[in-house]
Design goal:
CATH architecture of the largest domain: Roll
CATH superfamily of the largest domain: 2,3-Dihydroxybiphenyl 1,2-Dioxygenase, domain 1
CATH topology of the largest domain: 2,3-Dihydroxybiphenyl 1,2-Dioxygenase, domain 1
Structural class: alpha/beta
Helix content: 10-25%
Length: 123
């Protein structure tokens, strides 16, 4: 393999607030905090982390890339309620209501989905 995924980068107007939100969502921690970037992850040796980078402009259009999160043993509905209590909000990106996922947005409007539990990337 010549390349591997290192960070998922999220543009943010308030890096510390976004870092707190995503750390709570994923049960991760801040691994590095600098003036112009905050890196979070499960551990410094984890295969992938999230890097929050500063922007001045607010988010105005639907993300072209988003995160899909799988719920824990309490199920999707319980996880959605937990995420809403952390500051996420429900958003409509054209769902029909019959989807097996729930679309939410973080406090700055970045969409993400809570999907049904999965054991593999395709199952």
């Amino acid at each position: 393999m010549g390349v591997s995924l290192h960070h998922i980068v999220i543009d943010s107007r308030d890096l510390p607030a976004q870092a707190r939100f995503w750390c709570q969502v994923l049960d991760w921690k801040v691994l590095s905090s600098r003036e112009r970037e905050i890196v979070i992850g499960s551990d410094v040796d984890a295969p992938v982390g999230i890097c929050l980078m500063p922007v001045d402009d607010p988010k105005t259009v639907k993300n072209r890339v988003h995160l899909d999160l799988t719920p824990g043993p309490d199920g999707r509905d319980a996880e959605v309620e937990r995420l809403l209590s952390l500051g996420a909000r429900r958003v409509d990106v054209g769902q029909t209501g019959a989807e097996s996922w729930t679309v939410l947005a973080d406090p700055e409007g970045n969409e993400f989905c809570v999907i049904r539990p999965k054991r593999t990337l395709v199952g």
